[in-house]
Amino acid sequence: MEERHRGRLPRRSFLRLAGGAAIAVGLSSVPRALAVTVQAAAPPAAPAAFPNPGRVTGDIRVHDPSLVRAPSGMYILAHTGDNLALKTSTDRIAWRSAGVVWPSGAPWTTAFTGGSPTLWAPDISFHDGQFLMYYAASSFGSQRSAIFLATSPTGQSGTWTDRGLVIESSSAVDYNAIDPNLVVDAQGGRWLSFGSFWTGVKMIRLDPATGRRSTSDPAVRALARRPAAPDAIEAPFVHRHGGLFYLFTSFDLCCRGAQSTYRIMVGRSASVTGPYVDRSGTALTAGGGTELLAGHGSIHGPGGQSVIVDSDGDVLVYHYYADDGTALLGINRLGWDAAGWPFVS
User: What is the pLDDT of residues 63-113, one digit of tens each?
Assistant: First the structure.
């Protein structure tokens, strides 16, 4: 993200019942007067005010968190940090440090980081029996950026294997290759969204055999942009729900401690590649976006978001800044209103 290049620090409430049609319960064995019709609960309405983050404890200092639940039930969280930081939890509440992805460093990234060990915005997921992690290498003030892929059988520190460069950027292109997110479409096709500032959020098709950029379809597609100032948009995350794709992004400025103005926006599309529109019908490529979560009280600049589907529903994971400027982990559940739009609960 461009915002990361402006001094950024190292970079998803409770399950609601979805509604449905009326359910007629015919009781033929009782008098007709006692027969009843039960109306299923309607989808809940969004709360009038933004809720605070749900309860989390332990080591909760994070930036740009991405979360996956392992087959064992363990939660693994990856976030921006030196050699990519890892945390684990057994209950999604209490968190502890679990080392780093690259204990011996990642020398293949230093051409993009200016020698810094800090790597950005990992996107961790589990597919086909292995953990995948897309992550970014760059430096503040530079469009010389790259996204890499790593895989692991366990997701634990020191078990990751470098799978190479996925896409890079420079002043020769109009995008910035950071903030990756893998999404799988309804047919099993794999796509990577990424980008910040410049001309906004982009997407490329991936080769399912390698996890890297498709050579048969190398096109860079536009998903979202803020064409007029401020052009601050970044941190895309695409989530499939109810037959539609929802694109979550972060607007405005991060990395300024309690002065951060980051906020989470959303749009949706019937196709993974767009076009995405907000609740009012404005295209995200024309600056559209429906606000999902913004700063309130002592919660400053929420953003850098991701979403997981857990046993208790959809969950939003993000970072925010405390009054003292510390970047902390935020976790809330996502509800869905009657029109199919998400809200934080």
Answer: 999 999 999 999 999 999 999 999 999 999 999 999 999 999 999 999 999
- The predicted-structure confidence for 183-216, as pLDDT tens digits, reads as follows 999 999 999 999 999 999 999 999 999 999 999 9
Catalytic residue among 64, 252, 278, 314: 64
234 is catalytic: yes
DSSP designation for 196: B
Long-range contacts of 334-338 (CB under 8 A, 24+ apart): 334/12, 334/307, 335/16, 335/43, 335/44, 335/46, 336/16, 336/18, 336/43, 336/241, 336/242, 337/43, 337/44, 337/45, 337/46, 338/19, 338/42, 338/43, 338/45
Active-site hit among 123, 234, 252, 314: 234
Active-site annotation holds for 64: yes
Q: pTM to 2 decimals?
A: 0.88
d(CA 318, CA 11): 10
